[in-house]
């Protein structure tokens, strides 16, 4: 299985970019991992929230292959403990899917077309985090999940 993380807009903090890169590199030890950035929509100030979600949705859907399993990072998604998230990853690997695609949307969320294509939604917290921080938290949790599955000493229960 491969995991692809897709996010809207580039990370504007070098410190966050460096930390994301550290965990992405660590993940390569366990699984094929790819982090794709979809550039911000140009002239988004001239668009309504709905129009921006539609345009971002088209760009997200254009990244997908028919065999991909799409999971959205969404405030209404299921919350997991780190142990439960590790189990979620194991079940996805056991199911034989080729590519698990996790998507962090833009500031207004996802279009209806993207919701229609997704297989599930995950929420990292009831709190709201910046989209920049969510990238780091998610990559770290994926890494943590694989260390849990391998019984490595990174996660302490």
UniProtKB/TrEMBL annotation:
GO terms for cellular component: cytoplasm. The gene is rlmH. GO terms for molecular function: rRNA (pseudouridine-N3-)-methyltransferase activity. Keywords: Cytoplasm, Methyltransferase, rRNA processing, S-adenosyl-L-methionine, Transferase. This is Ribosomal RNA large subunit methyltransferase H. InterPro entries: Alpha/beta_knot_MTases, RlmH-like, tRNA_m1G_MTases_N. It comes from Flagellimonas pelagia. It catalyses: pseudouridine(1915) in 23S rRNA + S-adenosyl-L-methionine = N(3)-methylpseudouridine(1915) in 23S rRNA + S-adenosyl-L-homocysteine + H(+). The keyword Cytoplasm applies. Specifically methylates the pseudouridine at position 1915 (m3Psi1915) in 23S rRNA. PANTHER family: METHYLTRANSFERASE, RIBOSOMAL RNA LARGE SUBUNIT METHYLTRANSFERASE H. Homodimer. CDD domains: RlmH-like. S-adenosyl-L-methionine binds at residues 73, 105, 124-129. Its EC number is 2.1.1.177. Belongs to the RNA methyltransferase RlmH family. It is found in: Cytoplasm. Its main location: cytoplasm.
């Amino acid at each position: 299985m491969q995991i692809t993380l897709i996010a809207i807009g580039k990370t504007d903090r070098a410190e966050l970019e460096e930390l994301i890169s550290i965990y992405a590199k660590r993940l390569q030890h366990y699984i094929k991992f790819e982090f794709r950035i979809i550039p911000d929509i140009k002239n988004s100030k001239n668009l309504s929230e709905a129009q921006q979600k539609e345009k971002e949705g088209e760009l997200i859907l254009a990244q997908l292959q028919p065999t991909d399993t799409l999971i959205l990072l969404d405030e209404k998604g299921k919350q997991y403990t780190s142990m439960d998230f590790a189990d979620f990853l194991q079940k996805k690997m056991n199911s034989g899917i080729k590519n698990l695609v996790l998507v962090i949307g833009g500031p207004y969320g996802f279009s209806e077309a993207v919701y229609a294509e997704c297989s599930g939604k995950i929420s990292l917290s009831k709190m709201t985090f910046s989209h920049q921080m969510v990238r780091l938290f998610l990559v770290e949790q994926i890494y943590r999940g694989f260390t849990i599955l391998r019984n490595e000493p990174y996660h302490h229960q």
